[in-house]
Each structure stands twice: as structure tokens, then as C-alpha cells.
């Protein structure tokens, strides 16, 4: 699915590389031979995948790291000028729905204003640059319907997280229409697309208020898993699935004469759209334990049904999921259980990468 020669030696600016998805993507880009320039805040949790991986594989000449906030526009501009990226993968965000209720202004500032700061920092570049801006599957106005959302469906967002990401989609589209082109106030060098994915699972996610890491922590302590919304359905996909979509989209933006500077969904096949209770039951088939329904009628609103249509990414980019639901859960639980038993997180990640790249669709 990927052109490895495209990435070898390619200068890549990766924001949010200290997060869960960002850490996986940093590792993958290193394996592809890219020159990575990371820009992110320090990891929040004491236990996090970024430090688990860099403890075993410290920074070297293939990647560099700046710890800074997207709010600091001058720092961001300086880093872009040093990196001179040919590809940008923008993952930095406030990614948690429940946290967005506690900190709505911070969520909006990071997810909306932070994205615009990045685009402004990229504007002075004098060479072609492919830019993939990552949002979420929650950008759509959720109507709790059973069929999947397409890229042309109406944007919305009940909670501050979803709304901030939908607003980012609108702002990015406006910025692209206003400032990409050949007019005096525009730049001809940037090719910008957005990628919508969410509910990714996989080894190394230690965030709070996410069902899989919460479940893994409970199992490691031999405690019952507290499930707050067992009836909610989500399109569960392994973290490597959307990441290869982001990389493939960047390749197409960089190499095609008329690239698709627009939005793309990256989600699993329909069979992976399962209720939370079924997810937990499947987890427990790989790591025995118990779970309990902790539903709270007074909890903040979260979507019940959510699914994406992925035809566009398949037909336009040649992308489609490689791992089915059963494989996704098996590999995810296997990662956590192996690390719990003393295995190297880096070795477990590399094993998943190898298995994923060897898989057929």
C-alpha cells in the first residue's frame, strides 16, 4: 500500500508525536527511513508509549524533537523553517471527549486555533509540501443512524471535542480556499487534505477515559472492568489502519498532478462496528477477567451510534483495512498482556508492524 522509496530520506514534520498515535507513526516513519521533525507537548501520563519506545531507542540523527505548544506561533514558525518539511502530518490535539467538557476553551484553542497556527507557519515555504491534517470521525452531525457517514455529510458536534474538530475542518477548508493558489496573497506550494478517523485501539494507549486502556489497567490489577456505556457502538480499528491511510494520502498529495485536496474517512469494515459490551467480551476471551456496567445517567453526552463509509479512500487512494475485528482485538490485547509479563514495548510494536505489513487485505 505504501511506496517505501517515497519516504526514504523524506523530511517530515510530525506534530503530536508524543501521543499514542503519534508514537506509533514516529516509529513507522523511522522504519521507512524518513527524517522526522517532531513538535509536541511532553507526554501527560507517567506511563506513555513515547517514553516506553524512546527509552529503548533514543533520538538519533533520523529524527529531532521540540517540546512546545501549538499556541506558540513563533516557536512553530521557527521549527518549520528549520525542518523545511516536504510532508506534514498534523496529529497534535486535545483528543478526549470527556476532558473537553472540563476544559472546553483549551480544547477549542488546541484543536482549532492550533491547526490554523500550523497552516500559517507553513505558508512561507518555498517548495512543494503535502499536508495531512488529522481530525476525527466525530466531526459529523451525529443523527444516531445505522449507516455510515460520508465525507459530504453535514458536520456538527454535540460535545466540545467533536465541535472543535468540526470547526477545524471548516477552518482548514476556508484557509485552503483562501490562501492556496497563485494570487499575490496565496501560496502555490501547499497541498492540504484532512483525514477523519477515530476509535483506534492498539498497544501502548495509556490514556484515561478510553475503554481499552481502562480495561487493560483493570485486568493488570485483577480488577473488574468498569464500563460506562456498554450499548454504544463504535468502529473499532487498529491504530495502524488509519496511520497507513495518512501516509498513503500524503504520498498521493505529493506525487499526483491533480491531488485530492479534500477530506477522507479512514475506518474499519462494517463488521468491526460493535457495541462496547461485545468489545469487552472479546477482550476477556484473550485475557480472562470480569466487567461491570457502570452506566451513569447523569454523565455528559456521548454519541451512541457511529460508523464511517470508507469507499472514497478505497477508490481514490487504494486504501482499505487489513485486519478484521478479531485480529484487531487479538493483537491489541496481546500487546498489553505481553508487556505486562515483561516483554519490550518496542519489540511488541515492531512485531505488530511486521505482522500488519505482511497481512493481505
Explain how this protein is built.
The protein has 361 residues and is an alpha/beta fold. It has a domain at 4-200 and 237-268 and 305-323: 3-Layer(aba) Sandwich (Rossmann fold), CATH 3.40.50. It is built from 13 helices and 13 strands. It has helices at residues 4-7, 20-32, 49-56, 73-83, 97-102, 104-122, 160-179, 211-220, 240-255, 276-286, 311-317, 325-340, 345-358, and strands at residues 11-15, 35-40, 63-67, 87-90, 129-134, 190-196, 200-201, 225-227, 233-235, 237-238, 263-265, 273-275, 291-293. The chain has a 7-stranded parallel β-sheet, with helices on both faces. Helix 10 (276-286) crosses helix 12 (325-340). 45% of the residues are buried. The model has no long low-confidence stretch (mean pLDDT 93).
Amino acid at each position: 500500500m505504501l511506496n517505501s522509496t517515497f519516504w526514504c530520506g523524506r523530511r517530515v514534520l510530525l506534530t503530536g508525536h508524543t501521543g499514542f498515535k503519534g508514537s506509533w507513526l514516529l516509529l513507522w516513519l523511522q522504519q521507512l527511513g524518513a527524517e522526522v521533525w517532531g513538535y509536541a507537548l511532553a507526554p501527560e501520563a507517567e506511563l506513555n508509549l513515547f517514553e516506553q519506545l524512546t527509552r529503548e531507542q533514543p533520538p538519533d540523527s533520523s529524527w529531532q524533537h521540540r517540546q512546545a505548544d501549538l499556541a506558540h506561533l513563533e516557536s512553530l514558525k521557527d521549527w518549520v523553517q528549520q525542518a523545511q518539511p516536504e510532508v506534514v502530518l498534523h496529529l497534535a490535539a486535545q483528543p478526549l471527549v470527556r476532558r473537553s467538557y472540563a476544559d472546553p476553551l483549551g480544547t477549542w484553542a488546541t484543536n482549532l486555533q492550533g491547526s490554523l497556527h500550523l497552516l500559517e507557519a507553513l505558508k512561507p515555504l518555498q517548495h512543494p509540501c503535502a499536508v495531512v491534517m488529522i481530525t476525527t470521525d466525530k466531526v459529523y452531525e451525529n443523527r444516531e443512524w445505522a449507516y455510515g457517514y460520508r465525507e459530504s455529510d453535514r458536520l456538527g458536534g454535540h460535545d466540545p471535542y467533536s465541535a472543535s474538530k468540526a470547526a477545524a475542518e471548516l477552518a482548514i477548508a476556508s484557509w485552503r480556499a483562501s490562501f492556496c493558489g497563485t494570487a499575490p496573497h496565496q501560496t502555490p506550494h501547499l497541498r492540504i487534505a484532512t483525514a477523519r478517523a477515530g476509535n483506534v485501539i492498539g498497544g501502548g494507549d495509556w490514556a484515561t477515559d478510553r475503554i481499552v486502556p481502562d480495561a487493560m489497567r483493570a485486568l493488570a490489577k485483577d480488577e473488574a472492568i468498569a464500563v460506562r456505556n456498554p450499548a454504544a457502538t463504535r468502529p473499532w480499528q487498529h491504530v495502524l489502519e488509519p496511520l497507513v491511510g495518512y501516509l498513503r494520502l500524503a504520498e498521493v498529495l505529493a506525487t499526483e498532478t491533480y491531488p485530492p485536496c479534500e477530506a477522507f474517512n479512514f475506518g474499519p469494515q462494517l463488521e468491526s462496528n460493535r457495541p462496547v459490551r461485545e468489545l469487552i467480551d472479546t477482550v476477556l476471551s484473550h485475557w480472562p477477567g470480569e466487567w461491570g456496567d457502570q452506566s451513569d445517567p447523569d454523565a455528559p453526552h456521548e454519541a451512541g451510534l457511529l460508523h464511517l463509509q470508507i469507499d472514497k479512500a478505497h477508490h481514490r487512494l487504494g486504501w482499505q483495512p487489513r485486519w478484521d475485528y478479531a485480529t484487531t482485538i487479538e493483537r491489541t490485547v496481546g500487546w498489553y498482556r505481553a508487556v505486562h509479563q515483561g516483554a519490550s514495548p518496542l519489540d511488541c510494536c515492531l512485531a505488530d508492524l511486521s505482522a500488519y505489513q505482511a497481512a493481505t487485505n
